[in-house]
Amino acid sequence: MHRRQHQLLLQRQQQLLLRSAALRKTLAQQAGALQSPLALADQLRAGGHWLRRHPVWSLAGLGLLVFRRPRIILRWLPRLLGGWQLYLRLRDWFQGPAKPQ
User: Fold this and answer.
1) How far from 49 is each of 25, 54, 85, 87, CA to CA, in Å?
2) Nearest 5°: phi and psi at 34?
3) What is the mean pLDDT of the segment spanning 19-43?
4) Average predicted confidence (pLDDT) for the chain
5) What is the 3-state secondary structure (H, E, C) of the chain?
6) Rounded mean pLDDT of 71-99?
7) In percent, how much of the chain has pLDDT > 90?
8) What predicted TM-score, i.e. pTM, was given to this entire model?
């Protein structure tokens, strides 16, 4: 009796191991489709970090744009200011109420 149960348990274990291997293979194949978009997101994030560490380059680019194309800046200025205000409101909203000190 115990020998039969032991054999059944070993057989079940083997089936589960085979199923796990098949599921891992399927997951690896399906995750390959996400590799390209995730690589792009990583590059964008790294670019954002670089811009935060080197703000002079961002300001220089903006200054060049103002110098070369002032009409573009004047046209986009209200939108940019509105976007900045929206960002500040959302940031404050997500941070929650200020904690008393």
Assistant:
1) 35, 9, 22, 18
2) -90, -10
3) 91
4) 89
5) CHHHHHHHHHHHHHHHHHHHHHHHHHHHHHHHHHHHHHHHHHHHHHHHHHHHHCHHHHHHHHHHHHHHCHHHHHHHHHHHHHHHHHHHHHHHHHHCCCCCC
6) 87
7) 49
8) 0.47
